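Fill in residues.
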């Protein structure tokens, strides 16, 4: 017997919840088409699914159905029955084009992510990460090993950096003097771009030794060897002395205790009394407003054990490290420059 005092769900609630519930399906279709390089095959004009299947070595009917589904979201377009063309969205799935998102999609929508997010209840009930439950390792341990997943991860990080760099350089003035250390700088893509624009700066790319080794070729190819050092180490132990520090998508990987340690080490090694620590991160909009950062926060919950933060949370985090939030500079990308100075 139903309780008549309880209101019935709105007529469209079931449909809308179902749309949310199948969100993994578009992600899977996006991954499949990116993996098969369908956008590249369409770069010279529309093609029928039969030709795309022949060129890809896959089943025509299955590929057609995947393309039909993802085209309903504006990724590709069925211009006549069975024939598809690129759209502005699928153009960004092409390899080697400026602003390409293909490497990012190959990471975010890969089978490993599906396995991990299938275990999202684990961090909610246990406090651990879904990543460790699935792989037996922390994400930092897992991506130290040389394997296909690590290559996909590194390519995605480079892609994400490239997507935000121009917006970052347009919005923030890094100055033309002193030394800027990029902590957790990976292969040096961000720092190289900063040094190219700010010709009076010197730089240091700092990361764990096996990662930062990849920065040597990039720095050399940019002709920046005389202005940029490469240093390996553990930012939980110490960081190189510098006037200013930049950390892109580093602090969000860690809980407050670990993040405070990294920030304290930067503050301790800072040479200039007027030095700054600049975090390149998203800042969560409070309340119920749609915000991509809230979904990236789910990535942190499932994968790394870190978190995205609000402006208030960053201010509190800096205070724990003996720092003060000076300002937040928003860019045309989802990322902000969150600037801290010594108190």
């Amino acid at each position: 017997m139903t309780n008549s005092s309880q209101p019935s769900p709105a007529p469209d609630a079931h449909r809308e919840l179902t749309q949310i519930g199948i969100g993994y399906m578009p992600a899977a279709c996006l991954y499949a088409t990116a993996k098969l390089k369908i956008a590249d095959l369409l770069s010279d004009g529309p093609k029928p699914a039969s030709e795309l299947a022949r060129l890809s070595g896959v089943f025509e009917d299955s590929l057609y159905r995947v393309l039909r589904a993802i085209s309903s979201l504006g990724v590709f377009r069925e211009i006549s029955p069975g024939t598809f063309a690129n759209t502005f969205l699928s153009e960004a799935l092409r390899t080697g084009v400026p602003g390409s998102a293909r490497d990012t999609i190959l990471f975010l929508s890969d089978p490993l992510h599906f396995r991990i997010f299938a275990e999202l209840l684990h961090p909610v009930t246990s406090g651990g990460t879904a990543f460790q439950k699935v792989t037996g390792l922390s994400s930092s341990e897992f991506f130290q090993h040389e394997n296909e997943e690590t290559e996909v991860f590194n390519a995605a990080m480079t892609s994400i950096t490239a997507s935000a760099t121009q917006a970052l350089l347009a919005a923030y003035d890094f100055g033309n003097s002193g030394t800027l250390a990029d902590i957790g700088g990976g292969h040096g893509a961000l720092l190289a771009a900063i040094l190219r624009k700010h010709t009076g700066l010197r730089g240091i790319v700092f990361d764990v030794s096996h990662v930062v080794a990849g920065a040597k070729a990039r720095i050399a190819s940019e002709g920046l060897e005389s202005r940029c050092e490469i240093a390996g180490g553990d930012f939980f132990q110490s960081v190189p002395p510098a006037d200013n520090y930049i950390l892109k998508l580093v602090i969000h990987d860690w809980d407050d205790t670990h993040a405070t340690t990294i920030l304290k080490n930067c503050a301790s090694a800072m040479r200039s009394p007027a030095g700054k620590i600049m975090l390149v991160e998203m800042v969560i909009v409070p309340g119920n407003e749609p915000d991509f950062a809230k979904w990236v926060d789910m990535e942190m919950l499932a994968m790394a054990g870190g978190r995205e933060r609000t402006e208030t949370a960053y201010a509190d985090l800096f205070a724990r490290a003996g720092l003060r939030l000076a300002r937040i500079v928003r860019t045309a990308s989802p990322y902000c420059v969150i600037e801290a100075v010594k108190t």
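DSSP finds 18 helices and ten strands in the chain.
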